[in-house]
Design goal:
6 helices, Gyrase A, domain 2, 15% helix, Immunoglobulin-like, 3 domains, seven-stranded antiparallel sheet, 463 residues, eight-stranded mixed sheet, alpha+beta, single chain, Jelly Rolls
Length: 463
C-alpha cells in the first residue's frame, strides 16, 4: 500500500533539489531554451512515467517545461513522487537542461472585505456557484478561469545570494518554502501566508494597469490615476551598464515602500519587464533590478511604475533612454555557451553544477565545494577556434567569500596564459587575447577562498 509523506519529508530526500513542494503537489521547472529540446524532455518524462506507472502533469512551453507530481491515491505525496522526481531530474541533466526552482510559483489569494454579504453574489458567480469562503479543488474551477494548468498559490520568494548558494562558513541547506498542510482533493478554505486585503489587491491590479500603459506615449489610464514617480523617488535613480553591453543594473529608492517594476525595450512599445526579486510579493524601499538580455551598441527605453499599500500608482512621465556600449572588436560571439564540460574540481550540488557556468545566464552559477584557489573547470569548444577574448565572471557570497580575483587558462593541456583579472556581473571584464585552442581549463589563481566558482565563463571568437 502506498503511504503518504509530508512535504518536508519530500524536500529532505536526496536528489530532489530541483523540486519545490507546493500546495498542489511538488513542482519543477526546466529551462529548455527551445521547443525542440522541450519536446525531447517531455518524451523522456513520458517514458519514465509509463515505466513507473506514475504520470505527472506536464506543461510544455517554448522556453521551458514545468512538471507537477502528486499521488492521487493518497491525495498527496508519496515515495513514488520522490523516485520519479529523481529520474526526471536525471533525464533533464542528461539532456543538458538546467532546472530553475525560482520559476516555480503558486499564487494564493484570500479576499478580505468589510462588506462581505454585498460581495458574496459576485464571488459565487466568478467561482461557478461555490460557497463563499470555500474553494473547490483546482480541477473543479470553471474552465473560464484557466486557459492552461497553472499554479494558483503564492509565488515563492527568490532566495538571496547568501541563501541561494553554499556558504563558506558552514554548510547550510537551502530552505524549503513554508507549507501549510491542507487536504488534497477536498474543498478547503483558501488560506494565504500573507493575507491580501481588498485594498492591497486593488494595489496589485493598479500596478498591472500602470504597466499596461507603459508602452503608450501618454502613460495614463482612465481607470487609475497615475501620479508622477518623482513624488515617491528618494535621491537619484542610478543606472549602471555592464561593460560588455549585455546587461544593466538600475537602483532606485522609494518612500513609502512600493511594489516596483521596470518596463524596457528597444521601441516605445517596450516589451520586457524586470523587478527586484527581493520584493518577494511585498513592498520594499530599495530596489535593485537587473535588466538582462541586452544587445551591445543598442538604444533602449525604460519606464518605472510602482504602487504603494494604499493602491496609489506612480510612473515616470517620460521614457528614459540609454545606449549599451558596442561590443569590443576583439570579442565576437560568445562560443562558450553550451560548451561541453570535460572536468571540474568539484561542484557544491546539482543546483550549482558546472554546466551553469556556460549556459549564458547570469541567474545561475557554478559553485565549487570549498576549493578556493584550487577551483578549476575545463570546457570543450568542439573544434579548434581562434580565441580573441575571455572572461571569468566570478560568483560571490554576501560575507565577501568565494570571490575570484584572478584566473588563468590552460590551452589544450599545454600552454598556460594569464593570470588575468576576473570580472563580476556588472563588469565581466573581457580580456583581449590571441590564441587557438579547443580545450580550455579555467583555473582560479587568487580568491577570497571558500566555494569559489563562476556565474559565467565567456570565450569570444571571430571564427
Amino acid at each position: 500500500m502506498t503511504e503518504r509523506i509530508t512535504p518536508r519529508q519530500f524536500s529532505e530526500a536526496a536528489g530532489v533539489e530541483d523540486w519545490r513542494a507546493l500546495f498542489s503537489g511538488v513542482c519543477a521547472h526546466f529551462r529548455t531554451g527551445s521547443f525542440a529540446v522541450g519536446v525531447a524532455l517531455v518524451d523522456a518524462i513520458g517514458s519514465l512515467a509509463d515505466a513507473t506507472d506514475h504520470h505527472p502533469d506536464v506543461d510544455l512551453r517554448y522556453s521551458g517545461v514545468t512538471v507537477r507530481l502528486r499521488t492521487h491515491e493518497v491525495e498527496g505525496l508519496s515515495e513514488r513522487d520522490v523516485e520519479l522526481a529523481r529520474r526526471i531530474s536525471e533525464a533533464a541533466c542528461q539532456l543538458g537542461v538546467p532546472a530553475d526552482p525560482s520559476a516555480v510559483q503558486d499564487v494564493q489569494i484570500a479576499i478580505d472585505a468589510l462588506v462581505g454579504p454585498e460581495v458574496i453574489p459576485f464571488w459565487r458567480a466568478v467561482l461557478g456557484g461555490c460557497r463563499a469562503g470555500v474553494i473547490r479543488p483546482f480541477e473543479q474551477i470553471p474552465a473560464s478561469l484557466t486557459s492552461a494548468p497553472a499554479h494558483r498559490h503564492r509565488r515563492l520568494k527568490p532566495l538571496t545570494r547568501s541563501q541561494r548558494g553554499p556558504c563558506s562558513t558552514g554548510s547550510p541547506t537551502v530552505p524549503s518554502p513554508r507549507i501549510r498542510p491542507m487536504p488534497y482533493g477536498a474543498a478547503t478554505r483558501w488560506r494565504a501566508t500573507a493575507l491580501l486585503t481588498a485594498r492591497a489587491l486593488a494595489a496589485v491590479a493598479a500596478l498591472c494597469l500602470g504597466l499596461a500603459a507603459c508602452g503608450g506615449a501618454g502613460g495614463t489610464n482612465d481607470a487609475v490615476r497615475v501620479r508622477d514617480f518623482r513624488v515617491i523617488e528618494v535621491g537619484k535613480t542610478r543606472l549602471q551598464i555592464a561593460a560588455d553591453g549585455r546587461s544593466a543594473i538600475l537602483q532606485v529608492e522609494t518612500n513609502p515602500p512600493t511594489v516596483c517594476a521596470i518596463a524596457y525595450g528597444r521601441t516605445v512599445s517596450l516589451g520586457s519587464i524586470a523587478d527586484d526579486p527581493n520584493m518577494g510579493g511585498t513592498a520594499i524601499s530599495r530596489h535593485v533590478v537587473i535588466l538582462a538580455g541586452l544587445t551591445p551598441g543598442t538604444t533602449y527605453r525604460f519606464r518605472l511604475t510602482a504602487t504603494d499599500a494604499q493602491g496609489g500608482v506612480f510612473q515616470t512621465p517620460k521614457l528614459t533612454t540609454f545606449t549599451t556600449p558596442r561590443q569590443s572588436a576583439t570579442s565576437g560571439p560568445d562560443i562558450a555557451i553550451g560548451a561541453q564540460i570535460i572536468a571540474v574540481s568539484s561542484q557544491w550540488s546539482d543546483a550549482y553544477r558546472a554546466a551553469h557556468a556556460v549556459d549564458g545566464k547570469l541567474s545561475t552559477e557554478w559553485a565549487s565545494a570549498g576549493d578556493g584557489d584550487r577551483a578549476f573547470i575545463t570546457i570543450d569548444l568542439g573544434r579548434q577556434r581562434k580565441i580573441t577574448g575571455i572572461a571569468f565572471i566570478s560568483r560571490e557570497m554576501s560575507d565577501g567569500s568565494a570571490i575570484t580575483r584572478t584566473f588563468a587558462v590552460v590551452v589544450d593541456g599545454r600552454r598556460r596564459v594569464g593570470p588575468f583579472p576576473a570580472g563580476n556581473e556588472l563588469n565581466p571584464h573581457v580580456v583581449p587575447v590571441s590564441f587557438t585552442g579547443r580545450f580550455l581549463r579555467f583555473e582560479v589563481v587568487q580568491s577570497t577562498g571558500g566555494n569559489t566558482g563562476a556565474t559565467e565563463i565567456q570565450v569570444f571568437s571571430r571564427s
